[in-house]
Structure formats: structure tokens, C-alpha cells
Write a structure and sequence with these properties.
By secondary structure, this protein is mainly α. It has a domain of about 25 residues. The longest helix is centred in the middle third of the chain and has 104 residues. It is rod-shaped and about 140 Å long.
């Protein structure tokens, strides 16, 4: 039994020593992969934050432009009402002048 243990111990020790560098290489590769994935994630997160900021700024500008558009539409409506009013007065004055000319020429 001692001979079996004596033969088994070096074999077991040798297999552990041979497996350790492979395991270390695997861990090193995994650590590199995790580091690369973390860098990719950080870059993606940065891109997302930048895109979100640009989108938020654009939405703010759109809201401001929509407000400005509404003001301009109201201003146009007021200007159109004033135009129609002055056109009506002009027409009345033109008719009065035409009527006066027609009376004088008869």
C-alpha cells in the first residue's frame, strides 16, 4: 500500500504542477477578456451618454422653436386681421373717392 501511495503522490503532484500553468494562462486570458469587455462597455456607456445629451438638447431646441412658431403664427393672424381691416377701409375710401369723381364728372 505504501508503494502505491509513493507512486501515486509524485504522479498527482506532477499533474497538479502541469495543470497550474494552464489554469494561470486561462485566468490571464479571462482577465484580459474582462478588461477588454469593460473598456468596450465604458465606451458604449460614454457614447450613450453623449447621444442622450445631444438628444435632450435637440428636444429643448425643438420645444423652443415650437414656442417661437406659435408666437409667429399668432403674430401672422393678428397681422392678417389688421390687413383685412385696412383693406376694408381702403375699399370704402376708394368707393367714396370714385363716387365723388363720378358726381363731379357728370
Amino acid at each position: 500500500m505504501i508503494r502505491l501511495q509513493a507512486k501515486l503522490f509524485p504522479t498527482l503532484l506532477l499533474s497538479l504542477l502541469l495543470a497550474t500553468p494552464a489554469r494561470a494562462d486561462n485566468i490571464s486570458t479571462l482577465q484580459y477578456s474582462v478588461t477588454a469587455a469593460q473598456k468596450n462597455y465604458d465606451a458604449a456607456q460614454s457614447d450613450y451618454a453623449a447621444a442622450s445629451k445631444v438628444l435632450q438638447e435637440q428636444e429643448k431646441r425643438v420645444a423652443q422653436e415650437q414656442s417661437r412658431l406659435k408666437e409667429l403664427q399668432q403674430k401672422q393672424t393678428t397681422a392678417k386681421a389688421h390687413l383685412d381691416q385696412t383693406q376694408s377701409k381702403l375699399d370704402q375710401q376708394q368707393k367714396a373717392l370714385d363716387s365723388a369723381w363720378n358726381k363731379d364728372n357728370k
